[in-house]
Amino acid sequence: MSNSFMPDFVPQVPGSRSIAARALICASLATGKNIVMNAPACDDTDAIFNCMRNLAADVHMSGNKAELTSWGKLQPDAKVLDCNASGTTMRFVSALSILTDQPVVLTGTARLMERPMSGLNDVLAQVGKTVVDHDGQREISGKSQIPNELTVDASTSGQFVSGLMMALGCAGKKTKLIAQNPVSIPFIMMTVSVMRAFGAGIEVSHQNSQMIFDIAGTGYRRTEFFVEPDIMSASYFFAAAAMTGTSVFVPGISKDTV
C-alpha cells in the first residue's frame, strides 16, 4: 500500500478461525509461554481452549489475545475433553493422542460423534491405538509406536492430514506422512504455514494423487503469532466499498490468502 493512500474505512475484522485453530494447537505444543493474537471468539477456539487446558497447556484469554504456557508434553488427566460441536477440535485432538500412551477421552454433540473419522482412525491403528465409542464418548488408548512412514486416506477430510502433521511435528523423530487423494488442499497448506511459523521442519511434495510430507519432528519454538483477518468476513467490507464507490483497507491479510 502506498504511503499516500488514505482509505475511507479501516474495519476491525476478526481473525480467521481456521488459522487460529492451528495456531492454538501449535502454541499448546511449543514449550514455554506462547501468545496468539487476534484469536476470534467462536465455537472452534472455545473447544480447543477447553481441550488443551486439560491436555497440554495453561491457557488464558484476554480479549482476542491468548496466552498459552505449554507443559512440553501431553498430560491427560483422565478428564473427558469436550469438543462441543467442533469437528476441527475432535479431529485435531484425536490426532494428538499419538503423542501420549495415556488414554484420551473425548465427547461432543451427538451430531459431532457421527462425523466421519475412519481415515484418521486407520492411522491411529497404525501407531497402536484403539478407538472405542461408548455412551457418547470416544476413548483412544494404547501405547504409541510411530513408524517412519504413515499413510492416511484424506479423501473425506483434510483435517485428518492437518491434525497428524501437527502431532508429528513434535513426535521426536523424522516421519513421512503420505496423504492419499487429499481434499481441502489449501487448508492443508495453511497448516504447513502455521507449523513453520512455530519453527517446525516440514517439506511438501506431490506424486500423482498423493501429497507427501517429510516432517522433522523436532518440535515447536516459543512464538508470538498474529492470526490474520478472516478473508470471508472481510469480503463484506470489500463488497460494500465496491457498491458505494468508497475505499476500504483491511490490514494483516497476506498476499497468499488472496
Can you put this structure into words, describing what you see?
The chain is of the alpha/beta class and 258 residues long. The chain is 32% helix and 23% strand. A four-stranded mixed beta sheet has the order 2-3-1-12, with helices on one face. It has a four-stranded mixed beta sheet with strand order 4-5-7-6. It starts with 16 loop residues before the first helix and ends in a 14-residue tail after the last helix. The relative contact order is 0.18.
SSE order and pairing:
Layout lengths: L16 H13 L2 E6 L5 H10 L4 E6 L2 E6 L10 E2 L4 H10 L7 E4 L2 H4 L4 H9 L3 E5 L2 E5 L7 E5 L5 H10 L6 E6 L4 H13 L4 E6 L2 E6 L8 E3 L4 H14 L14
Parallel strand pairs: 1-12, 4-5, 8-9
Antiparallel strand pairs: 1-3, 2-3, 5-7, 6-7, 9-11, 10-11
Helix pairs in contact: 1-2, 1-7, 2-3, 3-6, 6-7
